[in-house]
DNA sequence: AATATATACCTTGACAGACGAGGTATATTG
DNA sequence: CAATATACCTCGTCTGTCAAGGTATATATT
C-alpha cells in the first residue's frame, strides 16, 4: 500500500457510504473493491473497517442484516439509510473543499 | 473550522514544510498563515503544531534557531533542510496520488 | 487424508497524532 | 491596570488505526 492510513483516515466512513449508494454490500467485498479501484494503493484493514461499520450503524447511517447464503461463509450485509445518503453528500462536499484547501497549502 | 482534523491529519508535516520552502518562519506565523490561506477553514492547533515541529526536527527535515528580536516575544525560527525539501517533494507526490484515489473512491 | 488458500466474520490491546487545558513572558491598547 | 495580541511550551486525554489473534465454511493441492 502506498497511500498512508493517516491520509485516508478522515475518509473511511465516506468511502464505505459511497460503496453502498447503489447496492448493499458486505465487509469483505467492500474491502476488495477499495483495493481493486485503487490498484492496491488504498486498503482499509479489517479491524478498521469493522470499527467503522459500528460507528456508522450507531450514527444511523447504515443498517445491517445477515444474508441467507446457501453455501460458503455467512455474510453480513449493510444498507445505507436516508440519513446515510445525506451524510455522504456532506462528506463529499467537505472533501471537495478540503481538496482545494490542501492544494492551496501545499502550493 | 470546517475541515476536520482527521482530514488534515496526514498533511500536517507537508503543510509545515511547504511554508518553509521560500523562507524561514516560526510557529505563530505559520499558524496564522494556514488560517489566512484557507479563510479560517484549516487550523493546526498549537499543541499539534509544536509536536509536529519536534517530529520534523527529529527526522532532520527542519532546523531550529532562536531569532534575535529586539522587541516583543522571542521567536523560534525553523529552516527547512535539503532532506526536508526531498521529503516535501515526496509528500507532494503522495498527495497527488491520494487525491486521485480518494476521488475514485468517492465516485 | 491432510494442508493450504480463499471467503467471511469478529475482538482485544497497543500505538500515534490531535488537541483541550493549562502554563510562561513581552508589548500594546483602551 | 486590565485586556488583548504576540510568542513559546507541556501534560494528559481521546480517537481511529491496526497487528495479532480467533472462528467457520468451501475448494484446491499435495
Short overview:
Two copies of one chain form a homodimer. Chain A is mainly alpha-helical and 107 residues long. Chain A contains five helices and three strands.
Can you give a write-up of this model?
The structure is a homodimer of 107-residue chains. By secondary structure, chain A is mostly helical. Chain A has a single domain (5-105), classed as Winged helix-like DNA-binding domain superfamily/Winged helix DNA-binding domain (Arc Repressor Mutant, subunit A, Orthogonal Bundle). Chain A is 57% helix and 11% strand. Chain A contains five helices and three strands, in the order ααβααββα. Chain A has a three-stranded antiparallel beta sheet. In chain A, α2 packs across α5. Chain A is globular and about 55 Å long. Chain A starts with a helix and ends with a helix. The model of chain A has no long low-confidence stretch (mean pLDDT 95). At the A-B interface, α1, α2 and α5 of A face α1, α2 and α5 of B. Chain A binds a DNA duplex (30 and 30 nucleotides) through residues 5-6, 8-9, 12, 26-29, 44-48, 50-52, 55, 69, 71-76.
Amino acid at each position: 500500500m502506498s497511500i498512508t492510513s493517516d491520509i485516508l483516515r478522515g475518509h473511511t466512513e465516506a468511502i464505505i457510504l459511497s460503496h453502498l449508494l447503489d447496492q448493499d454490500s458486505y465487509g469483505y467485498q467492500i474491502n476488495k473493491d477499495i483495493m481493486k479501484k485503487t490498484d492496491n494503493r488504498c486498503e482499509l484493514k479489517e479491524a478498521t473497517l469493522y470499527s467503522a461499520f459500528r460507528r456508522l450503524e450507531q450514527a444511523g447511517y447504515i443498517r445491517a442484516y445477515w444474508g441467507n447464503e446457501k453455501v460458503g461463509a455467512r455474510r453480513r450485509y449493510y444498507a445505507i439509510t436516508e440519513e446515510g445518503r445525506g451524510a455522504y453528500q456532506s462528506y463529499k462536499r467537505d472533501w471537495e473543499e478540503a481538496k482545494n484547501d490542501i492544494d492551496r497549502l501545499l502550493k
